[in-house]
Amino acid sequence: MSYHKRNEEIAEIGLFYHIDKTAVLQEARVFNDSHINARKCRLLLTKIIYLLYTSESFNVKEATELFFNVIKLFQSKDTSLRQLMYLVIKELSGIAEDVIMVTQSLIKDIQSKQETVYRANAIRALCLITDPSMIQGIERILKASIVDKTPSVSSAALVSSYHLFKIAKDIVKRWSNEVQEAIHQKASNSGFSSVASNYFSGGQKNSQVIQSTSNINQYHAISLLYLIRQHDRMAIAKLVQTFAGSRSSGGGFFGGANSGGTLKNPAAICMLIRFASKVIEDDPSSTRQIYEILEGFLRHKSDMVNLEAARAICDIPDIPAKELHPAVSVLQLFLSSPKPTVRFAAIRTLNKLSLDNPTAVASCNLDIENLISDQNRSIATFAITTLLKTGNEASVDRLMKQISGFMGDISDEFKVIVVEAIRSLCLKFPSKHSVMLSFLSGVLRDEGGYNFKKAVVEAIFDMVKHIPESKNVALSHLCEFIEDCEFTKLSVRVLYLLGQEGPKTPTPTKYIRYIYNRVILENSIVRAAAVSALGKFGFYCSDPSVKKSVHVLLDRCLDDVDDEVRDRATLYLAMLNDEPLAKKYAADEATFALATLERQLVEYVSAEDNSKQFNLDAIPVISKKQEEEERRRNRVETTTLLPAEKKNGKTTASKKDKTSSSSTSHFDRQAQYAEKLSAVAEFASFGALFKSSEPVQLTESETEYVVECIKHTFAKHIVFQFNCTNTLNEQVLENVHMVMQPEIDGLVQVAEIPAEKLEYDVTNVIYVAFEQEDPEELANVSFTNTLQFEVKDCDPATGEADPEGYEDEYQVEDIDVLTSDYIRPDYISNFAETFESLAENEVVEAFALDREKAPNLKVACKSIIDLLSMQPLDDSDKPKNNNLHTLYLSGTFLDGSKVLCKCRMTFNASAGVAFELAVRSENMDVSQIVLLAIS
Question: What range does the domain containing 608 cover?
């Protein structure tokens, strides 16, 4: 042993930093010595492992020669040397040739009864070097090792079998009985903590619980057993019931002679709990039975099991608050645990639960407040954000004081989480905006990166938009921020907001000074944004003195060194002198759907023949309010408090994430559809996609085959996209077609793209395309649909299908092509003016909706909007009067004609809704077609 002082700086470099591969290969000859020097060989093996670990490349010849030198060490009796030898064999087995030559030596070590320390290592090495064709030859050895009474040997065999499953499913599947036997044998006595039981009888739970670390082979065995049965839902449910047991009428969990007490290893029980969550996910009807199992695990003596069970209960969809209480109570007790990992797991679970069910977590607020001062800043951050979601209005002031001293001690990543929580709390309690705005302005002056400053700025933006009382103070704070802002993007965002909101304030002139300072002091990008903001003050403010001042400032910008700044100044000066021009290009609230515009511009630039003028009329028009909502939605979707979890190898989002993703913009989805369709050669000649419908379910979700349809409308074609899912795990469908029969003429089928295969629980797509026979007369037609396919039985465990099958078909619901499929919702900002200009192409008719179909005006508005597929304007889809209302609608017809509708409606409690619909368009025929959609 050396007593020399350790040099920490040299230690960081590493003992083997200057190792040369060639020298190591030369030294490897020492393995051939008749008298093996164990110490020297151990050091040399360590060097080899270091080279392999640092990705030093060995060619096949070098690896093979080294491999056969290393296996000479089988003659050594030194235990540590032999263990290093096994490790090197495993690392070299993927490079060297003829490694199976060592098979007999490894089998000899496995069967050795004297040297048990070698057996586990030999099993791992043997399974790694064994060729797939030779696995059957060592099957007997592995099966015996799985049920071996030595835990390390059993675990090695189970883990190796888990990896062999990828290449020999059929063989490993036969070992199911041995795997179950490995779970049952050598289970040490383990029950419930008496301290944990005291909690359920009214006492306190002591977190100082001794956890069992034996029987780790149970964890490996149950994981392998699940892998074998993973494609069989019933088998997984049975596995959970078998090894979890159930409550008996006369006692507690794990009671009596049932098999519930088989699993003693906490990690194995945690894995079983995850399998139970999977059962709920696949079969919601089993929720009650699985809940009882999970509730029983809350009484286990292991903290790990308690936490996993509580987390699983909190993840059950739509679980009643009463059934959440036991899990929340256990998590509340863990908040005071002396172990930081336990406290972190508990507060993290409660934080996630607070996103969807804050009232259930509110009872823990007193204990959560104690964690704000926790030494672990991660725990403190989760505590703060949880309190911000569950706290009441009276606690806001106290929380903000605590957070103020807390922000300086955490990283920007956690600061963003806190700011997002404050933003949500501010929108929840608008009356407390002054306290939170003061806090946000303070942290805005602190040091921080772009993501943190952006989160703060976006939070203030939301306050300006949703809390009118905070607008003046919030804009002032933002003005101070851009005086010393190092991020160009944020300066541009703030200047844009000042241009939008500043002219609407009582004293707009105080913001002009801050904006013009940016013209003098900043880079060209910020200067250009400042010029745009000044221009908006010029034509939004009615005060002549303000207009005059802005005119003078913009005149000075004409001498700027940057051409874009000069061009913007010239444009806005022209707008100040020409009110119609300003109204058309600056005050207009309409804008293009950016996702669609970007895609079509890319297609236009990439096309070989772009001699034709780019068609802007083909781009959907939305309001700037809609655009802002889309930007907000994207920001919320990308800013998540917790990452998506992985269950059984698949990433799953939280309930909040799923809600966000389901609200994806219609135009974003259409852009995705258009990109996919443009990649299909059969549809390349159809032109630009006009519209995609919402998915229409053609089957029930519980049927054996689930089918939904999306209609894609082109200028002369309609493409039907059928998303098909096979829910039967014992069948594979091949050569899957959708046979569509129109009830009347008008559409002719021109293309079909069947699905080659429908495997279990994997969605595949069928496309069927039809062409309009007469583009002048658009067809309204209903289709009967039949799914035709070849059925092949398959093994649920392996997914392998029989070679022979039989033809079959499946009838699904009809699909209708309606007038609404030829109309795209589009926004216009000047409805009255445009509607008046189309007076010569007007058709008017009166209609009525009975009380059952329209119990109020709001429902009537929704029915008319859905029927016409048009864009409601000026929030006219939200009636403010219960008896009288006027609905304004705008859209674009398939031929590019603008269509406007004015619907005046009245509501009578006995008769229902009566309304008069006036349709105007650029084409009289289009007006009549739209009107016929109602009648």
Answer: 594-650
Largest alpha-carbon pair distance within the chain? Answer: 109
The residue among 817, 841, 875 that closes a domain is 817
Residue 401 tokens, joined = 């004081």
- The Cα–Cα gap between 134 and 104 comes to 13
Distance from C-alpha of 437 to C-alpha of 422, rounded to nearest angstrom: 10
Identify the CA nearest to 690 among candidates 854, 544, 869, 824. 824
CA distances (Å), origin 48, targets 10, 31, 628, 693: 21, 13, 59, 62
644 pLDDT band, cuts 50/70/90, is very low
Identify any residues that bridge with 770 across adjacent strands, giving them in sequence order: 718, 749
SS3 at position 338: coil
Count of domains forming the chain: 7
Rounded to whole angstroms, the Cα distance separating 390 from 425 reads 9
Assigned domain for 324 exists? no
Distance CA 453, CA 461 (A): 12
Return the DSSP state at 389.
H
Q: What is the pLDDT of residues 675-722, one digit of tens each?
A: 888 888 888 888 888 889 989 999 987 788 999 999 999 989 999 999
Is residue 332 assigned to a domain?
Answer: no
Asked if residue 923 and residue 830 are part of one domain, the reply reads: yes
Using CA atoms in the order 579, 583, 587, 591, what is the torsion angle rounded to 10 degrees? -150
DSSP type of residue 209:
P
Q: Long-range contacts: 277-282, Cβ < 8 Å, 24+?
A: 277/312, 277/315, 277/647, 278/236, 278/647, 278/648, 279/233, 279/236, 279/237, 279/240, 280/316, 281/647, 281/652, 282/233, 282/236
CATH code: domain of residue 125: 1.25.10.10
Annotate 613-677 with DSSP letters as a single string.
PP-GGGS-EEEHHHHHHHHHHHHHHH--SSPPEEETTEEE--HHHHHHHHT--HHHHHHHHHHHH
3-state secondary structure of 810: strand
Question: Residue 187 — pLDDT band, cuts 50, 70, 90?
Answer: very low
Among the residue ranges 144-148, 598-602, 827-831, 905-909, the one predicted with the least confidence is: 598-602
* pLDDT above 50 (res 931): yes
Evaluate whether 136 touches 171 at the Cβ level (below 8 Å).
yes
Terminal Cα distance for the chain, rounded: 97
